[in-house]
Amino acid sequence: MEYIEFKKIEVKTHQTLTEKWVQDRIVENPTILGLGELDVRDKERKQAKAGRLDLLLEDSNDENKRYTVELQLGKTDESHIIRTIEYWDIEQKRFPKYQHIAVIVAEDITSRFLNVISLFNRNIPLIAIQMNALEIDGKVGLHFTKVLDETHLIFAKDDEKPVPASKEYWETKASKTSLELVDELLSAFLKRLSKDLSLKYNKREIIVEKNGVRINFVRFKPRKSFVNVFVLLEEKQTVLNELDNTSIDYEVKDNEVRLRIETEQLKEYQKTLNAMFDKAYTELYKN
Fold first, then answer.
1. Of 24, 105, 142, 280, which one is least surrounded by beta carbons within 10 A?
2. Fold match, 7-148 / 167-286
3. 87: Cβ–Cβ under 8 A, 6 or more apart, which residues?
4. CATH number of this structure's domain 7-148, picked from the four choices 2.115.10.20, 3.40.1350.10, 3.40.50.150, 3.40.50.10540
5. Exposed, middle or buried by CB within 10 Å (0-12, 13-18, 19+), for 82?
6. Do the bridges between strand 99-108 and strand 126-136 make them parallel or antiparallel, or are there none, so unpaired?
7. Is residue 186 exposed (0-12), middle (13-18) or buried (19+ Cβ within 10 Å)?
């Protein structure tokens, strides 16, 4: 493997790079922050009497977790810390049942301010991320390193009305391939349970309806090359045992099994997936 040297550059003093440029790169691919799969809920979000929040991000696999992100070129300072916490406080007061996590992103987080941030971190879920801009062969890349993680606090859910979207919206947000995968999950797997099932496109997720009414046993969040599938199950051990014999990635949170499904897995594990959807649908109407 060939070794290539890179040059670290400071965005704050760069002639063409700006904070907006950094913000746009994060919006294009929020995963570069190293916080997992994220969706952009808003940018330059107006705060009452307090300016604008740079980014509001949401965990792709847990819609109850949100990140209030503030960017700072150069060294972090007192005003940056105060602004970050202030915006976090406004958001968590607006939607108190969400889990809000404050995120400070700066090019230089000094040891002094890291100690100060650590004090806040004992009572506020706060993450500090150092950003490095690297130049290689005339091209610039961004690298983010988490230097302080959150203190985990427990929050409950909120009831925020879903925002309607369209299939075209999701094709742009994810891909045409992943939307075709959702269509196949509906036609080949869910329609077996009832021919009256259909998809409803919202900005946060794709839900399933029966005769125009949402039924809560499965929902989807497409990505570029796969689909996150969320299935509600109470008695799930048999299903989990079957999933362990497949290549499907999954995790369990409370009564929800969260799967990452790719196109080639549909036919290969058709029996396992059918059994899972059958059980979830049966439990729904039993309860």
1. 24
2. no
3. 47, 50, 51, 53, 68, 70, 102
4. 3.40.1350.10
5. exposed
6. parallel
7. middle
Tokens of 88: 């976090």
Tokens of 122: 């004992």
Cα separation, 74 vs 109, whole angstroms: 9
- Which residue shows structure tokens 């594990």? 269
CA distance 132 to 116: 21
CA-based diameter of the chain, in Å?
64
Q: Is it true that domain 167-286 has CATH number 3.90.1150.200? A: yes
How far does CA 232 lie from the centroid of its chain? 19
CA distances from 187 to 180, 193, 229 (A): 10, 10, 15
| pLDDT tens for the 287 residues of the chain, in order | 788 788 888 888 888 889 999 999 999 999 999 998 999 999 999 887 778 999 999 998 887 889 999 999 988 888 888 899 999 999 988 888 788 999 999 998 877 777 777 777 667 888 989 999 998 888 899 999 988 886 544 444 445 678 899 999 999 989 999 999 999 999 999 999 999 999 999 998 999 999 888 898 999 999 999 999 999 998 888 999 999 999 999 988 878 999 999 999 999 999 999 999 999 999 887 76
Find all residues with CB under 8 Å of 74, minimum gap 6, and list them.
10, 12, 13, 106, 107, 108
